Amino acid sequence: xxxxxxxxxxxxxxxxxxxxxxxxxxxxxxxxxxxxxxxxxxxxxxxxxxxxxxxxxxxxxxxxxxxxxxxxxxxxxxxxxxxxxxxxxxxxxxxxxxxxxxxxxxxxxxxxxxxxxxxxxxxxxxxxxxxxxxxxxxxxxxxxxxxxxxxxxxxxxxxxxxxxxxxxxxxxxxxxxxxxxxxxxxxxxxxxxxxxxxxxxxxxxxxxxxxxxxxxxxxxxxxxxxxxxxxxxxxxxxxxxxxxxxxxxxxxxxxxxxxxxxxxxxxxxxxxxxxxxxxxxxxxxxxxxxxxxxxxxxxxxxxxxxxxxxxxxxxxxxxxxxxxxxxxxxxxxxxxxxxxxxxxxxxxxxxxxxxxxxxxxxxxxxxxxxxxxxxxxxxxxxxxxxxxxxxxxxxxxxxxxxxxxxxxxxxxxxxxxxxxxxxxxxxxxxxx
Length: 432
Known about the structure:
The protein is about 35% helix and about 20% strand.
């Protein structure tokens, strides 16, 4: 440890992995929010003060910048400014004569070795889906320096290369050790909050909870809901505007600062387009959406609003602006109308979307095409469909599926596609 006084805190589990463990190869299979990233970021600062040269490999470049800003920079401020610096372009943190290189696994062929003392693979379940990173880049680096160490950690994502490496520690091979921690092993988290998350994932016996909360390696965990061919066939499919068609809007409200709020407009089976907003104020977002409503030549019959978290404020504000008869609350956690088939309404709305996909006319929107491919499903303990939560999707892909969610919200309830008039009242084909 350095003689410089640092106020860095660790849980007992983090201390056991990073400081009380001397194995050359350490694998950590963990549940989400266990605290691996923050713990090893703190440990890196101490290792840098000891003069170690470190390589940190992660999923995507945007995560590397986020981790530096959130986990490293606040702690580095405890040190004299003249002994450390960060080169944002090269993504290199320098501390005295030691350095830490941040690298993305997006281009593993570009990762080269420079005699690192410590190599960290974060989100190993994701970045080791392709064994090339380990076999052709990381493993040769470790051979070049017989005193180097590797910390390989993340939420499991099936039995890929990460599982193969963790199995060496499970078997007790010389130089290898494996740790397994669940989300519940983080003493800083509230148990009731963790229980809520487990419930949203389908219960403790669901595949998603076993993987994402309890850190288990499973043979299969999810399936893509929309294939590439399926999406491409719906792009610019001929579906004409119909004066009798239902106009339905879906508003997905951003949950974090780097997410977007997205408004989807659909007329019958023709998706008219998406409006994206970066507005922090829920009331300001409501005013912007209300202005869209006022300008619309065809007024929507319904606006489904994702009212989870801060979305509730936008939902309330739209009602206060006079849209009580139009706006509907659309929480994904609501009970599905078909409780035998779906875990919750989020699963039901996405499968409603899939069931009608062969009729849809979608705009050629790159964000939409990419995000639809990110949506996957699994099953809960009652063998009901469960859509993998957007928090997990964002962690894996680096972005939240806001555009895809706004489209799915237009299918939150099956209102039918067409109004028709009978006895001076409007009905749809289901009599609503």
